[in-house]
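Summary for the steering committee. One of the milestones for this cycle was to obtain a three-dimensional model of the protein with uracil bound, which we needed before selecting residues for the alanine scan. The sequence and ligand used are listed below.
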Amino acid sequence: MRLDRFISETTGLSRKEASKILQRAEVSIDGVVQKKGAFKVPEDAEVLWNNLPLKLQGPTYLMMNKPLGCVCANDDGLHSTVFSYLDVPNPEKLHTVGRLDLDTSGLLLITDDGQWSHRITSPKQQCPKVYHAWLADPLSSDAISAFAEGLQLRGESTLTAPAVLEIINEREALVQVHEGRYHQVRRMFAAIGNKVEQLHREQVGALKLDTSLAPGESRALTAEEIALF
Ligand code: URA
């Protein structure tokens, strides 16, 4: 990789800023000052910027406790994005694994590994997701069979796939779905005449939200967590 790109990837500086620090002779490779942005960095070279090591990272895998009021997009003219909660060098290289609505909180996976996220979001994989829903109206036990049999969502031609509804109390339930239709959980409750007041995702596949993460906080996934998908 070219040295200017290497600097930009490891620090988040632009290529122009990287050229400036090179011109100021602040970067050395294996002990020798290097000023050329086009210099090809050897595989195991020790690259130092003002004596601090710069290291290329492998792919990034994060879980965030998504807060309410931000969108799962890299840019948005209106709302803050989930990436504004991250302190990483190149957030524009990352993407969210699927999306949660502006007013949904909870487990959000973020990565730059497209194959990994495809394994989670591809409809073929039928990856289950668990949501905690708080409802405006009391739930009756009929809702359990309605969710299991499939619901007719407004404007859709096919029923939803069987989903598991576990009633916690009159106005709270856990829902497990493996599809990812637009506003799916809210529309499923609307289909039985109810309304979701609050929605929080607790689990994706076998991966549960780390409950030590406050809204807006994130952490790297462990190797075992990455290997779940
Ligand atoms: N279903 C919804 O309605 N909203 C979400 O954010 C996720 C699932």
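Key point for the committee: The first strand starts at residue 27 and ends at 29.
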